[in-house]
User: Fold this.
Amino acid sequence: MQTITSIRLLRNALSPLRNAGRSIGLVPTMGYLHEGHARLVSTAREQNDVVVVSIFVNPLQFGPNEDFAQYPRDLHHDEQMLTALGCDFIFAPSVNEMYPEPAVTVVDLPEMGQVLCGRTRPIHFRGVATVVSKLLHIVQPDKAYFGQKDGQQLAIILRMVQDLNLPLAIVGVPTVRESDGLAKSSRNIFLSVQDRPHATVLYRALQVARDDIEAGQRFAAEVMAHMAALISAEPTVRLDYAEAVDARTLQPLSVLSGTVMLAVAAYVGKTRLIDNIVLPLPPIDSPDIP
Amino acid sequence: MQTITSIRLLRNALSPLRNAGRSIGLVPTMGYLHEGHARLVSTAREQNDVVVVSIFVNPLQFGPNEDFAQYPRDLHHDEQMLTALGCDFIFAPSVNEMYPEPAVTVVDLPEMGQVLCGRTRPIHFRGVATVVSKLLHIVQPDKAYFGQKDGQQLAIILRMVQDLNLPLAIVGVPTVRESDGLAKSSRNIFLSVQDRPHATVLYRALQVARDDIEAGQRFAAEVMAHMAALISAEPTVRLDYAEAVDARTLQPLSVLSGTVMLAVAAYVGKTRLIDNIVLPLPPIDSPDIP
Assistant:
């Protein structure tokens, strides 16, 4: 495995492999890798001849009051983990290598980027779409891998690839959870021992909502209120949102049908966590609706 | 030469050529081709194994009161001309092929797209950047060719390619002019016999400004005022703008130095025309400045 920090050197390394017909899989990450990332890399490893993992904490996707400087970093640990997983190349550019001049060009999906997390993080998904677009042009992979845990991000990347005719496939990889249901996240490291048990309320709320829906509930407002009530009642937890949206467009639903994303975000202590599940429901006019 | 209207079929046609190591040149156009386009295609023909010319009048880059429906189209004439020029593939998709769903994703360079023509055409360059991004992903050319006549567009595409790390080279091709200096444009067809002689004022203003600068003038305001006065004094012509900007960033200059673009836009009768020239000037602290 090679760690490369230069765009030019990475292209030089990948170009002969691509020309020889080798398939390339890219796993874009911000580093500080955990088992969720490991599943992304394993999946890429199974499906491609060459696996590239990018590690880049992208300043463009952090707001002025967010945790860019505090975001955890540990390249040494990441390299060890990725060696064990059979990664071929780590691409770990500096901020200056990725943005030698201010980014004049932005890739934006306003309708999908201003909802859910976008309400509290208005520039986040523009930053994500822009940097992912750059990484896809630098690596030119056949497939790129994203976690379903970042459900809004995955929906946005899927739509960006479709809208801009990017010549690759996006693969969504299931969320990896702790034994108590907490979704793996690099930010879990910031949870205090006191707060940690309360962090499971995000997943518990999603499970309760799923139970409601399986019992026949189809009114989004009811499902959202139930999730919100549970999360709000949890000690040390402050609700950001609890929503039921169309999984592909992220637009609000009044009656649940089709592929639905239940998505929640909350501050547990000072740490902002997100989670979601996607449910395939019968179409709205189906006789299956109770 | 083959005319292809489907993205999938174009990719199928190009993929084996690319895999065999053939270089691909793309000339994006809106059709109704003239000698300016011919020079783009000839340049692409000299520099590449395979030449693709796209013909697509992109609704995204026309404002609600602009001439999308009236924009001239003549695919039959274009095919004849491109056959003669040795083009290999015409890509002529329908609006539905390019936008099967509404474009949620936009590629935007607000700082460069809101100046010059962007003041009267606020959504134009977002539409251009978005569709060019799509075309580059569909064709995946080694080089793409744009006319210097659309100077703001060329600067924006160059910056987009740099910012997003698109894996290709952009080639700017010199403006082709009528014998009296009028820049070739598909929209020249709309000039009435009465208005046509007045249309040369755009190029005449640029020449006068160049003379001023060659005589030592370095104050942008003086140069701009001189161009504006000439254009405004021309019968049947209404000035839109006359500016001197940094050719790379399109930002205004107070003192002219470095690579400067003189850019003008005016309505000649009802037809909006643009023109520009680029002058390489000594840096601002050079002893060459008089």
Q: What stands out?
A: The first strand of chain B starts at residue 2 and ends at 4. The mean pLDDT of chain B is 96.
